[in-house]
């Protein structure tokens, strides 16, 4: 395979990555409660290591994969991932790679004091410790980490099998909402290339995964909780059955006519999750979430989508939620009262 002219990776860069990876095994981690981009990108990196250099690896995720589509993807396309909320002994690995997350982001199980050997991500902001990482590739202008990993496979002359191609395609599709948000010309090229390689029957199984009654009850509650302001929408979802609900509700509510930005937040177990969406050509969601998050929370994002989480650690949930919503409305310049959506 000859790399396309849109691929900036060269053999020198690949050789550097191979040196940093060592002889294996490489431990591959991603963010908690991984989404399709994390699942696909991690598998693609493991494929690169094995197919290009015969380096073994272990894929490990923490948290939950409960959204039906994500769980279907995990089972059908990326079953290589193993679950553990406790990290293994890191000394047994030649390198540790963070994929679709960064050290210090607050959304992975890696200690803030541990510097990974490899980081490949597309989220903003770039964390301070990223400068200490031996191999770092963080490109916030790219719509999905899956796009970056496809470039690595292409540069190494590796053609993904249909399962990996389908996983990468679905990851890119979901992270960019079908190339409608935070997308670059590189994402478009990769999207169209992968489209010709996917297994359509498996993609349908994932996109049409069955939804439990709890999903519809939670969605109804979210719509009734939404408060509409002049250019903003806020929804406190309360206790959620899955941590992904804030992102899914925000994706829907940003489509409300006149909405410039949406904040959805809710609690799952001992963490407050929040998601922000902004209209195309509007405020940068990644910058907006940094003005909204409160300590000791961490947040990140870019373009029209961002998210964050705050460990409760004894904090009063209602007060915390109110503080975040107040910050959001102040940044958005809202001075009036909100109205019920439903």
Textual characterization of the structure:
- It is built from eleven helices and 13 strands.
- The protein has 342 residues and is an alpha/beta fold.
- It folds into two domains: 11-207, inorganic pyrophosphatase (n-terminal core), CATH 3.90.1640.10; 213-340, Diaminopimelate Epimerase, Chain A, domain 1 (Roll).
- The longest helix has 18 residues, at 36-53.
Q: In the residues, how many domains can be counted?
A: 2
Q: Radius of gyration, rounded? A: 20 Å
Number of helices: 11
What is the correct CATH architecture of the largest domain? Answer: Alpha-Beta Complex
* Gap between N and C termini: 54 Å
Query: Got a strand count?
Result: 13
Low-confidence stretches: none
From the spread of the alpha carbons, the general shape counts as globular
Strand order of the largest sheet: 11-12-10-9-8-7-13
**Fourth-tier CATH superfamily name of the largest domain:** inorganic pyrophosphatase (n-terminal core)
Secondary-structure element order, N to C: HEHEHEEEEHHHHHEEHEEHEEHE
- CATH class descriptor name of the largest domain: Alpha Beta
The helicity comes to: 25-40%
Mean pLDDT: 93
Please name the CATH topology of the largest domain: inorganic pyrophosphatase (n-terminal core)
Strand content: 15-25%
SSE class = alpha/beta
Largest sheet, described in full?
7 strands, mixed
């Amino acid at each position: 395979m000859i790399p396309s002219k849109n691929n900036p990776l060269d053999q020198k860069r690949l050789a550097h990555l191979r040196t940093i990876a060592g002889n294996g095994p490489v431990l591959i981690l991603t963010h908690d409660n991984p989404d399709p981009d994390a699942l696909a990108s991690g598998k693609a990196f493991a494929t690169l290591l094995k197919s290009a250099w015969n380096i073994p690896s272990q894929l490990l995720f923490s948290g939950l994969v409960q959204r039906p589509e994500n769980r279907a993807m995990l089972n059908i396309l990326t079953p290589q991932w193993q679950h553990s909320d406790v990290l293994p002994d890191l000394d047994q690995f030649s390198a540790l790679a963070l994929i679709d997350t960064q050290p210090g982001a607050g959304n992975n199980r890696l200690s803030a004091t541990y510097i990974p050997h490899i980081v490949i991500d597309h989220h903003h902001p770039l964390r301070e410790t990223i400068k200490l990482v031996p191999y770092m590739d963080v490109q916030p202008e790219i719509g999905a980490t899956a796009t970056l990993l496809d470039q690595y496979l292409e540069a190494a002359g590796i053609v993904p099998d249909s399962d990996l191609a389908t996983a990468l395609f679905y990851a890119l599709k979901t992270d960019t909402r079908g190339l409608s948000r935070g997308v670059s010309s590189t994402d478009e090229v990769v999207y169209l290339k992968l489209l010709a390689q996917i297994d359509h029957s498996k993609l349908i199984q994932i996109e049409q995964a069955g939804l439990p009654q709890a999903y519809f009850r939670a969605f109804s509650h979210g719509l009734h909780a939404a408060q509409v302001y002049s250019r903003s929408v806020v929804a406190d979802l309360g206790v959620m059955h899955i941590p992904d609900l804030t992102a899914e509700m925000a994706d829907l509510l940003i489509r409300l006519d006149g909405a410039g930005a949406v904040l959805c937040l809710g609690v799952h177990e001992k963490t407050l999750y929040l998601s922000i969406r902004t209209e195309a050509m509007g405020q940068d969601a990644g910058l907006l979430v940094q003005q909204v998050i409160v300590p000791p929370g961490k947040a990140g994002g870019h373009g029209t989508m961002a998210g964050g989480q705050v460990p409760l650690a004894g904090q009063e949930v209602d007060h915390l939620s109110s503080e975040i919503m107040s910050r959001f409305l102040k940044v958005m310049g809202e001075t009036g009262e909100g109205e019920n959506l439903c």
